[in-house]
Protein 1
Amino acid sequence: MKKEKRRTRRRFRNFGYLECGAFAGYLHEMSLKGWHFREWRAGMLFEEGEPADITYCVEVFPKGSEMDTKPEEPAEEYAEYCRAAGWEFIDGERKFCIFRKKEEDAVPIVTEEERFSNVKKAELGWLGREMLAPLVVTVSFWLRATGGEFEDWMFSNLYLTLLLTVTMLTAVRGVQCIGTAVWIASAKRKLNSGRKIAYGKQHWRVVWNVVYVLFLMMLIFLLTVEDRVVEGSMLAVFALVLLVLSWGIAYFRPTRSGNWALQISVGVAAVFLMVMVAVIWAVSVPEEESTETALAELPLIQSDYREMEGQPGWADYQYMESVLGTWLQGRVDYGKDLSKGEEEQSDSLSYDIYRSEYPWLLREVWQRETDGADAISEEGEIWDARETKRIGSGQGAGILYVRWSDTILILQADVMPDEAQSLIIKEKLSL
């Protein structure tokens, strides 16, 4: 007679080491409903059977690793020891080992002191690793945002969101560290007074996972809104690859060494593909087309305020906007061959316009940009500005800095404008 295949059910529940007691309680509740834990296989796999009052024990194995997807040799040896004590080993993952009570007179697998020590070390180790990445990223982002890339971060909603989000995630991890320290102190007091330590459910773990998902969705949305569809698509594909990789590892359950090798290989391959896509995208737009697009957007080129020969040979237009203000960057190069075989002469113009209603932001930009420039008063009247500085003199090459209450202009040219040309520039740039 053909044996009837039992039904199985997969549950996606995530328990931390501090929750080993709640984990055992969950398995017990499932058994009372007729669903008995069989193994980890891309989730927790339960097999249907008769409802039974089964006692489970979830222990934290100190010789286990976060990279373990199935019991390694030390865990198997540990299982033999526990079997002699009346406990049947079911499965293991990471540092978790799950046992089912088989003998009524089964003795506890570990003492309260040993369990507390194992759980504490495993939780602190996991939390330290989880804290490291967001902390490093946060410090790196803040160093860049307050350093040489100040304007890039302050005038970009995407960068500001990244900065605030990673800071928030690190702060949350910091709160978790404090909460874990409080729990450890409380558990020590209970242990010293002979009371039983409760390893119950920690509800903040669910919130943390939700925050991660929302963070990823928000990044993809912002990249799309900022017309950075390629970056958004790359991030989405990268997240999908990680999801598929995680599922594959959880389902096929490679050895610890195999898990390491697989994750490193896929990580290197993913980075290589992302770099290749970025390079291909960067060279896919012809320089001539890029220059024509920039010229159509630029509010000012040299021929707007003085006589020029030839046509612009290269131009670039960048516009950044954030909740703090806007930053417009214009670059134009005129070039022409004087005669065949002679070097090409060029005339360059570049300008940056910062606008913000926050005085502290413009003050910081002004201090950073005008370091080494000389203050001048005569041109301040021409521009009707609060402050004017300059590098260079006369009609030769130089840099002009002009500051109003809510705007800063930085203009660099091979031929600096005279008074009449300055008025035209001011009108063209709506200053």
Note: The longest helix spans residues 157-192.
Protein 2
Amino acid sequence: MSQEITDDFIELARYYAQAEKELEIQYWVNISIQYTDNAGNVVKLFTYDLPREVYERREWVVEWRKAKLTCLYPKVGIQRFISYYDKRLGNNPNLTADLRKLTSAKAQVTKARKQIEKYVAYHKENNMFFDESTDSDLIAARQKLLVKISNVQEAEKRLKAKIVEIKQSPHFKKK
């Protein structure tokens, strides 16, 4: 039982990875080491902007920097804040949430397609009376797949609309 759950989880992770690859997501991390002074102002001591893979391999560098700053400022509470984002879209939480929804929707479509393919292949081999056009389970699965595909299209439209909205806002900085 637990092996099946683990296999399902690994398979879903593969679908997510495939969707992220199709969307060309570039995961980066913004790390800020800071403290709050007596007046309540945030004082940034150091910031990093790195690819996520580099951060995950070299996390000790950030910890070392935080320890050094703790030694330099022993009476204040040094804090580390981490923010993951897609490099192309910037560090905007609204876009990140929509991107996650789009990735999830694409993964669900891939999973549903794979299940339909397995179902059809199995029944073609093992059921000589199998007819794709009359099988009620297959028809229902394909209808659900169409709904999931429309969810992907809606998520893409939402994300594109938000990107346009942000680019047209007066606070947007062109690089």
Note: The radius of gyration is 23 Å.
Protein 3
Amino acid sequence: MKISKRLLATVLAILMLCSGLAVSAYATETTDADLATFTVDDEALTVKAVVDGTKFDKQKDTVALVISKKVATSYATDETVKIGETLFDKNDNAVITATGLKAGTEYAAKAVVTKENDDTIIYEETFSILKTRTAPKSVTATAGVGTLKVDTVNGSAIVVKDGEPQVAGVNVEFKLVNKEGKAVDAAGKVITDADKEWVKDYSFKGLEQKAKYTVNVRFAKNSEYKASEAAFVVKTILESNTAKPAAPVFTAVTKTSITFKEVANAQYSLDNGKTWKDSPVFSGLPSGATYTAVIKVKATETKAESPVSDSTKIRTNTADVFEAQKADIKVTGIAAGDAVKSGSSLSVSANTVKRTEGTAQWGDTQLVPVSIKIGSTSAAFDAKGKAEIQPSAGDNGKTVDVVVTYSLQKYTGKWENTKTETVTFKVTVVTALTASLGSFISLITNTIPSIFAQIIGILSKLGVTFIGLISQKKS
């Protein structure tokens, strides 16, 4: 059969067309993980696709970015997302940016390269645009000697769960900045990598004493939220305080209360430091109870608290306070108006005015005899209130003061001298001769009263005066 050239050409054309249709019918779709990279910007609510220029021919192929949002369990096109123009960088990579994303939404980004023959290369990746979380409202931290520790965030204490610090179930992270504005790690060393400035540690040590540090706190990034803005607090690292206060003393004790002598910026304890009060007054205590009292000076903005003082035992009273009365003083062996003999030893006793032995309690007072002075001569009382004194011959014929001095003591855990009290009266100092004559006449007085009275009457008329005829003992 003979075929014309025209018919042959037509057949060949049809075959070629069919061949082309066959090629088109068998176009392929390939997934290539290296096709593109996606960069998500939570702040700008954008995603940028950079498609590798070696994967396509920019003169013949088309490059596209498709964004779908998750709805229930599938993804659908988000009409509010705007796909930007395809641009090319200096390396002929295609750069496409999608804008208008929504915080808190999960998306699928697909880069698609369509070849001249309708073959396609794709790469798809899912991501979420994170929500913004409000910054912490409050932060408290405690500065110590070379240390700083974050205590609470938004009023909640920090707990550690699965190695992560949390408050109210939300992870938190910290950044400590020194006075030069440089971030430091938990050991106080400067952090040189800015990406590592935020740390999990909330307790820092090795810090410079008396220097100010700023501790920043923020809620950490998670699958739903981006990292929050930070809250911060500035603290001065304390200087060590080695000055231990003196042991406590007290200004008042009753049957139900104890009052410390106040110390500036101090705290007070009656249970040997187990519990502390800022007030020096402890009331509502049981009668007769014994306590171990200590004090310490509180920390300031620049200095740590002091060591605890040595302790002092103190007991509440069991009765009303006894106050020694000067009116109860008794002096024997000498009295007002007596004639005392110079040069001879005179035995004098003075009593101690106090509670019954062994019953002293805080605030009680007592009067203890200290010394006696007759004219120009002095003597001390012994522990039993006894004194031996010889009036001076230089005071013969004089009426002189007798001064008995007492120490007023107060019981504050021990007896302490507070002031002196004196009892003063007058006596006359006579010579030994006058004293002997007086003693002789005293004897006559005891044995012959009537004769003595007559003698006295006669002598009085003669103008003779006898001094110290009464109460003077013969030496």
Note: Helices lie at 5-25, 432-447, 449-461.
